[in-house]
User: What shape does this take?
Amino acid sequence: MSQAVDEIKIGGIGASRKRVEDDRFIRGRGNYTDDIVLPGMLHMEILRSPLPHARIRSIDTSKAWQIPGVHLVMTGEMMASRNLAWMPTLSYDTQAVLATDKVRFQGQEVACVIADDPYIAKDACEAIEVDYEPLPPIVNPWQSLADGAPVIRDDKENQPDNVIYNWEVGDAAGTDRAFAQADLVSKLELHYPRSHPSPIECCGSIADFNRATSKLTVYMTTQAPHIIRAAVAMVAELPEHMIRIVSPDIGGGFGNKVPVYPGYVCSILASILLERPVKWIEDKSGNLISTGFARDVYLKGEMALRKDGKILGVRMHTDADHGAFFSDAQPSKFKIGLMHSAFAAYDIPVAHLTARGVYTNKAPGGVAYRCSFRVTEAMFFQERMIQAAASDLGMDQAAFRRMNFVSDDDFPHRTPFGFLTDSGQYAKCLDVGLKAVGYEDFRKRQAQARERGRLLGLGISTMTEPLGAGNSREYDILGIKMFDSAELKVHMTGKAILRTGAKTQGQGHETTWAQIVAHELGIPAEDVVVEEGDTDTAPFGMGTYASRSTPVAGAAVAMVSRKIRAKARKLAAHLLEVSEEDVDWELGRFYVRSAPDRGVTIQECAMAAYSNMPDGMEPGLENTAYYDPPNLTWPFAVYIVTVEVDPQTGVWDVLNMVAVDDCGVRINPMIVEGQIMGGLTEAYAMANMQFITFDADGNCVGSNYMDYLLPSAWETPGFELHSEVVTPCPHHPLGAKGIGECAAVGGPAAFVNAVIDALAGTGVRNIDMPLLPDRVWEALTYHRDISGAPPVRAD
Ligand code: CDP
Assistant: This one.
């Protein structure tokens, strides 16, 4: 007699199942792009510009060609003859593949060499002579906007200056009215500095064009293989069905591996020309200096307040430094990503946002580094502004937030910028966090410590983040609607293979997707193998970024499992010799409603699909689901940090950090915790130590791990995680919300708010990240704000 299976025992939803992918990772058996070796493979290296802005007078490649082992030297001129010197970006701009007229940032790709090995290729790059005519470098928006500033993109028609766009959203007139009624207006200006996702594995590709079959296979580090396939088909004018993109194991992406980089295009052309596989693996400096950066926005805003603490309206302005090419990977409709998701957790009647984007002589990017298209900047500004406003009002930080939160019975809630949030228990999360950190007690200890000259501080950050772009009505990239997919094939013995259009980069999809199948079908998770990243086999999908996998691809996995279950039900009815209406389901088993002992397992149904199906039924047990989500998911988080600042040195230490995340139903609680810890670590790094800036001559400072610091376990503080608040997403089939990015998005403001709180009474309103000791010391000693990332003097 068959019985229902125990969901946790079979590794279904809620099971903290160990990550199956880790077995190969910790044994050194991962298969990353650089691990792949193909017969006859050549190697490509890129020559990069040492100057940030210069006209190219000439390029002499003759010496490089003479080096034994060199097969090909490519320049912009050669690319231009094939109409490949420029490529489209994901934001409807163009980007140089190899420079022809000018170089526009330090590290820009100027030429490349294909040789027998990477060392020969590197030597040959150094033998290329480029005659540059230096031009004045522009390293921030203010230089870019100054009268008479050199026009960086003089390659473009109708580009008289360096402005890329002026964009606005919200209600300008209504916001003016709200400000006219305010008792108090609180103001804040800050800079979210340029940062870099810096995955441990750099970018790379192996292009393999087979003349005999006319098929192009590219193994590459991409988070979005299907988008790359479409881009290659369009840019290189190759038939899409003859292109196969394979994204093998990826050693971290964090948004860095979404864009199309010149190295990919060059390796593809080289393989087509040479009819041999060509491998390009970027080095760490190349990755830091030339690939998609994040942030680099200047934010200013003001908040209209009633004296009892009610927020009446908000004005925000951002100036975004996009570097030399506007290549943000973001939904087409939104010029500054989802910056207007700011203040979504707060009940604010009206708001207005203006945004201006400019070109500078810096690497292009604007990638969503572990965030849903600029929400990191939005939430950082929001939580810094909330702290400033509460201080200006003389109100308690927690009470001010609680008073202005969207309340639990206010959903669905239309935010001041037009998003629809649908669920949450914001005040409850805050209460859990305050209790865990011992809020009242800490405030007492803080006051006592201050009397003895010790500076303690507490910072709160509370936010809801839009995750899971998105519904196809509003979200597209280059016109391709955003949705995702899953294909499930159940074999006759009840084992299964699942493929999705997402692409894991360390998030554990191989583990969690199988748990969703287990939850829906009762097939043990260990009987389900998950595959992603091969465009010849995976169903079409938009890839993994912006924490969209669980909200979109994860939902598709649930939906395809339900399609399988629907067919299995018909098979069960056939096997049980009753009508389908008389069959009920419990996990892993169908049974006759009137005789529950008579049942068949899902595995028996699978066997029947291949051996004993009813007349007229199509054999087999497989299906595909495309999922277009009705809305974004809106997880909520509370991060609270306590710190002590050393007044002698400006060094600050984290005493405690509490995180309360409500991401709806957790598929794998252990993986969710891992995601939160990783995100908090990155948040700490951004707040504390990461600095990628440019000197006045346009040199990138932070192009190596001696300057651009990654926190190790030694530096990283401990985190206390809380999971007791669960508000299921009302429209997701499993009630799940995204989580991958929340901590990296909401975390930084908690750290900064804590340090600013420790400095209370000094008049310091802002220190821009990173809060390096010298910046904190200067603020504390001279009672002044430390703003921006000005050019660092070369001398
Ligand atoms: O798109 P990405 O995979 O980066 O982010 P995500 O959808 O937030 O998922 C990150 C990891 O956490 C995946 O393995 C998810 O399946 C898992 N997760 C979960 O177990 N429960 C949730 N409610 C959300 C994510």
User: Anything to note?
Assistant: The longest strand covers residues 311-321. The CA atoms of residues 339 and 688 lie 23 Å apart.
